[in-house]
Specification:
With 241 residues, this protein is α+β, with helices and mostly antiparallel strands. It contains five helices and 19 strands. Helix 1 runs antiparallel to helix 5. The C terminus is likely disordered. It comes from Microbacterium album.
Length: 241
């Protein structure tokens, strides 16, 4: 069963049978879902090797008649659209720069059966920051070289007797990361495999002694900034107008 098939069935549970005849003459909820999904695909922007940014604010503009019909569904429609976008982003490996917001708006300039999608994102202001999660605390990697160990002069100090004073270092150039064992007594592991030096990917775990160090790349964006684009989706023929 396809994603949109599941989406449409979910809506059927939320819609009173009285609306069924009405939907035949105007926009269908599944067509709004298709337009939103296409908007993410069209606006996806590769920011780094491991990050593809997509708009997080999406406004669906409908003809007044279509908007009134969709509004009759209450919050069920927005909830379904929100969940659909989250699933699609996960399936495609997309990242949202902020909380996902979906809204519907009546627009007399939009004809019946047509969906206009306005999307915005902070893609021009996005910054990707590397961090490591150690012993329940998150540490930003603010320097190109971060030393981790039990010594007081390490950049990140761990209270683990099984680690060396300067055990491992993490290198970050703003786009790529690397881990390197600093000649420690007990060695280092990357995702459970003994490793002296290796490139780092988001979500990988470095283990020194009994301490786990999870490497992450997280987005930082200024809310309320960015660019806006409008695309028109014609539900009658499946094309962008």
């Amino acid at each position: 069963m396809g994603l949109l098939d599941s989406f449409e069935q979910g809506l059927e549970r939320a819609v009173n049978r009285a609306f069924a005849k009405t939907f035949r003459s105007g926009i269908q909820p599944v067509e709004i879902a298709s337009a939103l999904r296409r908007e993410l695909d069209t606006k996806a922007a590769v920011v780094t090797r491991d990050r593809i940014l997509v708009p997080s604010n999406l406004t669906v503009r409908l003809s007044p008649a279509d908007e009134e019909r969709m509004r009759s569904l209450g919050g069920a429609l927005i909830n379904e659209l929100h969940e659909m976008l989250q699933r699609h982003a996960t399936d495609q490996g997309y990242s949202f720069a902020g909380p996902v917001r979906v809204s519907l708006r009546a627009d007399s300039g939009v004809t019946t059966g047509t969906v206009a999608v306005d999307s915005s994102t902070a893609e021009g202001r996005i910054e990707w920051r590397a961090v490591v999660d150690v012993e329940g605390r998150r540490h930003p990697l603010s320097k190109a070289r971060t030393v981790i160990g039990r010594g007081s002069d390490a950049d990140i100090t761990v209270s683990d007797p099984g680690t060396s004073r300067a055990h491992v270092e993490v290198l970050w150039d703003g786009e790529r990361a690397m881990m390197r064992d600093l000649g420690s007594t007990n060695g280092s592991k990357l995702d459970g495999i003994p490793t002296k030096q290796s490139a780092l990917r988001d979500g990988q775990t470095i283990t020194i002694g009994r301490t786990s160090i999870v490497f992450r790349v997280v987005p930082l964006a200024e809310p309320g900034t960015g660019t806006t684009a409008t695309r028109i989706f014609d539900a009658r023929n499946g094309d962008l107008a």
